[in-house]
Every structure is written in C-alpha cells, then in structure tokens.
Amino acid sequence: MTADAVRGATSTDALVRVEGLAKRYPVVGARGDRLAALGRLLLGRAPRREVEVLAGIDLAVHRGQSLGIVGENGAGKSTLLKLITGTLTPSAGRVVTTARIGALLELGAGFHPEYSGRDNVRMAAAIHGLAGEALAAKLPEIEAFAGIGRYFDEPVKHYSSGMVVRLGFAVIAATRPDLLITDEVLAVGDEHFQKKCIRWIDQYLADGGTLLLVSHSVYHVQKLCRQAIWLKDGRIEASGDAFEVTQRYQAWLEQREARDRAAAADAVAVGDMRVTALRVDGRTVPRIDLAMHGDLEVEVEITSRDDRPPALSLGLLRADGTPVYGVDSLMDAADARAIGDGAFAFAFRYERLPLLPGDYVLRAFPMDAEGLRLFAPAEVALRIRGESREFGLVRLPHRWGAP
Amino acid sequence: MRLASGPVLRELLAREWRERYQGSVLGAGWLALLPLAQLAVLAFVFGTLLPARASTGALPYPTFLALGLFPWLLFANALNRGVTAYLDNAGLIARVPLPASLYVHARVLGSVVVDGAGLVLVLAVLVAFGLRFDMTGALAALCGVAVLALMALALARIAALVQVFVRDLAAVVGQLTGLGFFLAPVLYERAQLPASTAEALGWNPLVAPIEAIRHGLSAQGELPWGALGAAALVAGLLLIASIGLQRRAGRHLEDFL
Q1: B167 touches chain A (CB under 8 A)
Q2: B220: region left, alpha or beta (phi > 0 left; psi from -120 to 50 alpha)
Q3: What ipTM is given for this predicted complex?
Q4: Partner residue opposite A37 with nearest CB, options B7, B12, B256
Q5: Residues B137-175: tens digit of each pLDDT
Q6: How far apart are CA A240 and CA A5, in angstroms?
Q7: pTM score > 0.80 for this model?
C-alpha cells in the first residue's frame, strides 16, 4: 500500500520524496561473512545473506506537513528515518530530499561520549552549517534551551539519556531546519522538557515547519501530526489522517494483546443455554461502526434447554479485553420475553454511548435465572469513530469552572 | 540531505587536535617538544654514544637520520591513524549523514599537519646547526612530503574501508608499516647497499619521496625527480583505486559497522 493520503509521491514540491524504497541488512554473524560480503560488493553483487526490513515504501512529505510514523518495534520506522536522513543507503528505490533536515535519531544526534556538551554542540551545529560567529551568537540560546547547567561542559558520557536529548533538541531548536525528524525523542526527557519540546514543535509547525515524527505514543502523534503512516513488517499498512491511522494501529495492538490472553481460563459453562441471535441496530454483523455519542440497540435471543427463562449479562470491553461496563438483566429486573420453542428475547439500548474512539467488543452472556452460571457468549466488534485527544475509555461529563 | 562539509571537516580536525593533547599537562606543547626530544635522542645516540655509525659523507648521521625519519613518521602516523577512522566513528556514521570518507580525511590531514609542523621545527634546528639547502632542494622536499601525504591518504582510505570488513587489518597494517620502515632508506643510504638490492628497493614508491626530501634539504646527492614523479603517479592511482573501492564497497559501509 502506498502512502496515498500523504499525497502523491510524484508531486514536485515535496521536501522529501520516497519511491519504491527498500532496505535489506546483510547478515554477518558468522566468521568470514564480512569478507565474503566485501568480495561480493566488489563484484557489484549484494551480500549472500540479507534480512529485509523495509520494502515498497512510497511517500512524499510536503512543506508544512506533520507526519507521524507508528508501528511496533522492528517495523522499520527508524530504518525509514535513517534512509530519509541519509545515514543509510537504500537497497532499492530512492529518496530525494530538497530540504535542510534536522534529525534526532536514536538519542542525541550522534554525540561523541568523550567530548563535552559544548564540543558536541559545535560539531552538531557545524553539520547544519552553523559555525564561527553565527554559532557563537547562538551558543547561549542553545545552552539555555538545553537547561543542563554545568553539565554543558562535562563529557556527554556523564549525561543521563534525558540530558542527551535535551542537548540534541536544543541544537535543533537553534538551527530551525526545514524538516524536523525525531525518533522517540519525546519518550526520554522529563515531563517538563517534553512539554517544552511540544510547545516548540507546535510553534515550529505554526510557523510553517515540517515534521516527521516516530513515536510509540499515540497521544504525541495525534497531538503533533495531522497525518500518519502505520508501518507493519517493513511495509505501509495504513496511511492518512493521524487519528484514523493511530486508532487502527491501537486497535490492532489491542486485538493482538487480547489474542495473547486467549489462553486464560474460560469460566463459562456450555450446553444449557446459548445465544442464537445477536443483533445490533437490527443487523447481525460481525462488526458495527458507530459515531461517538451514538445510540446502540441490542437484541439478544437465547434458547434454554429446560425452557426456564434465562438472564442476560451484557459487557462492553476494550479490544484488548479491558472491561468498560457490564450489567445484567437481574440487576435491572428486566425479564426475557418468550418467543416460543424454548427461545427467549432481550432488548437493550445504550443511549449516547460515551465511549472514546477506538475498538471495542460487545459481549452477551446467557445466565441461568439465579445468575449463578454463565454460558458461552456471543459477541460483536464495535468501532467508535470520532476525534478526541482525551485519555481512557469513556468521556465523563465534566465542566471547567473559574478558579 | 545537504551538509556543510567544510565546517564539519574543520570541527573533525579540531577533535583530532584535542584527542592528541587533551588531558596532558603540556597540551599542545608536545607538538614542539616531541620532535625536538626525538632529535636530541638521535643526536645523543648516534652523535655521542655510537659515533662510529655517523659516517655518511659530509652529513652528520643524526642529521641524515632526522631527514629520513621525520618524513617517514609523517607517512606512517597518518596511515596508522587513518586505518581505524570508520570503526572509531561508527556511532557518528550511524547517526550523522556525512560523506564517510571525511572521517579518514580528517584523521590523515590532522596527522600530516602535526607531523609536518614537527618536521619544520626539526628542520629549523638543523639549519641553526649548519644545514644548508637551496630553493630547488626545498621544492623537491616539499614535493616529497606532498607525495608521502598523498600516499598515506590513498592507503588509509583503502585500509580503513577494508578494515570495516576485515577487522584484523589494523594489526596487519601496523606490522607492514614496521617492515616498510626497513625497506625505505630511513636508517641507511641506498647507495651504500649492493647495487642489485639498491635497485630492487627503488621500486618501493616510498623511496623516492624520502630521498627527495633528504637530498633536497642536505644539498647532497641527486634529486630523484623522475622517480618522484613515478611515486606521485602511484599515489594518484592508489587514490583513484580508493575512490573506486569506496563507490563499490563503501556504499553500504554503515551496514557493516
């Protein structure tokens, strides 16, 4: 899949254009692998053993865009950024950049541990063409932004990872690149510095800057990026609006987590009662999409082997299995309606469902009349659509007051 | 990604400088002290302790030795420092999109500048003690130094790249440099050797630059312009070979670091 929502790769005004990009790393674990690889490279051939980490990547990043890249570890995010910044060479395809790029890759933009922060800043600034008097004029600003005090003149090997990022970000802030590329930078600094960075990036974007952000934080991607791509196994799984892409990614993560938990003990009994129909909004479908605060009609039919009226337990769960809300007919003294042949029907309605956007599961458990035994459930997937940066599972009614 | 290579090379050179002298009490004072100390040792050992060795025509043996040894050190130090340039900067190469050969150039250039300054200092002392040369001799010596530096750069570019794939190479280069010391006319005058041996050693492209420097600065012996030209040609071809090697094997250098 191409990053079609990230505009066509053939546009001419792109700061970065990536076409058919692929990256394969040589496998050089065994003795002699490197020598053999050298021989093959001299003959113009690829190393004998390679592992593919990226394939078929097409995308374009235009001035003023903010593009997030999400994906689990090993999906190829960092490799893609390194290819775009030019620290890696593609195995196939090409990357065309027409911008001055500022990159913070793998903490600290390549600082040398033996040199002081000041020395490393000089080098990093030189890489961006900032030297001599221009650098001397900027140094106080960089020192102030980093806010690491006396450590500025200490070797970087004495820094915490957060301090390294502070220093790297301070250089980027001072050089104001056309395109800012960051890889998990916001995950490292303390909260105060994170906020400072986010404020700076917000302003940078407002001033027309362009951002390429790799983050595991869906919040940061939604907060800072208008568009996103989801990399999965080295390929673009989804691209487009940041909210939609990150929600799909998050839902996939949650479903995978839920599958991992599937080995957990199943406490339900089988046999005496079973769900014969589960309809949502009048339809029997495996999944239903619903807007935030929409109403949801649920109808459940249960057959009872001994013709005794059943009870019904309804549960809403996040896709990863986290319970959100559960209620049963016994609590609310709601009776089933007999529909013949030992079958009973329940009707239920969620009004203005306050679930936050994401993927959920609606699960219906038949219960015996005493509410002592649960039987095998039926379920339907539920996707809530909408834009929200709120945290958690549900929106709670609230109001901001005057302090 | 466009980069400003000029300021970066300057910064890399500054790092080279700091790496040599950072933490030492004398700091950059070593730049002057080391070659002068080496010269004093040569003068003492071969001028006083073993005067029998000092029989090289009208030229005192310590002077003869200094005019061969310091150019040799300029070549050998530049080569040996350049060999590990990629591995020593692996962290930077993985994160900063610079032309990788810049790291080798900074290493070699930094080394040549330091040893070149030492050579000039030694020369000043030798002149103070009576060494005389003319402009033609000085030009020959300058050309000799340039060819040695070019040779060191070309070999360092090749060795640094191969070292990424064959990690044993740095040790091998160290041994080969030691052997080269004896195969070049540093300790001896080639004319003193049997004719066949002297002729065979003439194929060593390092011989002509060293002889050009020694003969040029001592105003003794013939200036080997032809051989120096051939050595420059060899250095040029090695440089072209290193560029070809870089294009082929260096394209994915970062994958092997």
Answers
A1: yes
A2: beta
A3: 0.80
A4: B256
A5: 999 999 999 999 999 999 999 999 999 999 888 889 999
A6: 4
A7: no
